[in-house]
């Protein structure tokens, strides 16, 4: 049986009167690519924030690598083997590319030199090693995304959460991203992916979770999820039986 990496039990989060995540329960088990999808505003990024301590749970509990982390701050998670990127790239403009990557390893490694070594390896892997001494402001948006991904790889995570890393990429760049994700999986990293490119999601994921209005409405294989009437209604806006009825008229 696969090891549970993160367990969310009855997770809820509201902003004002809006229930962004509503009593969501699921377990992210070890191995392969798992996708978290849903229409805009479904609560995907907020769920990522709750999973990694960037938002506090209003109610519910969270366990990470078997440890209760319900009240743990975000900086604790790299120590436990969890790293992430953000939908909107978050970099330190006053630091160099290398320093931005190095920050990702400070919670994991016991020395700056060890963190720097890991940072240089991650930058080389993402094709940014020749810009290590530059400012992030000199990078293109795509390269800033690569830098944030490099920073997430520095602590050598067991679980990597990727929040829309393929948005804005060319088809060739998407294929490069897929290749990198598959390489990471081959190396033993479990990848949890939030992505709007559903064809990509269904192609590379072994399991897909679907959110709508902050609630988990489906959890299964890509084939199971694509055939689920609730998922079809969430994405198309028309219940499946109505589509069939209309087609027969």
Automatic annotation (TrEMBL):
Classification via InterPro entries: AAA+_ATPase, ABC_AA/LPS_Transport, ABC_transporter-like_ATP-bd, BCA_ABC_TP_C, P-loop_NTPase
Keyword field contains Transport: yes
Gene Ontology MF term list: ATP binding; ATP hydrolysis activity; L-isoleucine transmembrane transporter activity; L-phenylalanine transmembrane transporter activity; L-valine transmembrane transporter activity
One example of a Gene Ontology biological process annotation: D-alanine transmembrane transport
ABC transporter domain sequence ranges: 6-238
Alphabetical keyword list: ATP-binding, Nucleotide-binding, Transport
A Pfam family reported for this protein in Swiss-Prot or TrEMBL: BCA_ABC_TP_C
UniProt-listed Gene3D superfamilies: P-loop containing nucleotide triphosphate hydrolases
Domain of life of the source: Bacteria
GO CC annotations, alphabetized: plasma membrane
Alphabetized PANTHER family for the sequence: AMINO ACID ABC TRANSPORTER ATP-BINDING PROTEIN (PTHR45772:SF7), CONSERVED COMPONENT OF ABC TRANSPORTER FOR NATURAL AMINO ACIDS-RELATED (PTHR45772)
Protein name: Branched-chain amino acid transport system ATP-binding protein
Organism: Compostimonas suwonensis
């Amino acid at each position: 049986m696969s090891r549970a990496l993160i367990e969310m039990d009855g997770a809820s989060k509201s902003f004002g009167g809006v229930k962004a995540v509503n009593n969501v329960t699921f377990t992210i088990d070890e191995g392969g690519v798992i996708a978290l999808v849903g229409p805009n505003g479904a609560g995907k990024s907020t769920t990522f924030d709750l999973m990694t301590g960037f938002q506090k749970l209003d109610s519910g509990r969270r366990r990470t690598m078997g440890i209760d982390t319900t009240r743990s701050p975000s900086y604790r998670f790299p120590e436990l083997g969890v790293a992430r990127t953000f939908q909107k790239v978050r970099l330190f403009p006053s630091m160099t590319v290398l320093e931005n990557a190095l920050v990702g390893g400070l919670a994991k490694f016991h020395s700056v030199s060890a963190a720097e070594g890991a940072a240089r390896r991650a930058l080389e892997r993402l094709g940014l090693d020749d810009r290590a001494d530059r400012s992030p402001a000199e990078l293109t948006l795509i390269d800033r995304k690569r830098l944030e991904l490099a920073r997430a790889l520095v602590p050598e995570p067991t679980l990597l959460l990727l929040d829309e890393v393929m948005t804005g990429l060319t088809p060739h760049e998407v294929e490069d991203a897929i290749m990198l994700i598959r390489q990471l999986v081959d190396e033993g990293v479990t990848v949890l992916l939030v992505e709007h490119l559903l064809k990509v999601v269904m192609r590379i994921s072994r399991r897909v979770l679907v959110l709508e209005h902050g609630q988990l409405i489906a959890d299964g294989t890509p084939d199971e999820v694509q055939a689920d009437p609730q998922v079809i209604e969430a994405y198309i806006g028309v219940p499946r039986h109505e589509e069939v009825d209309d087609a027969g008229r």
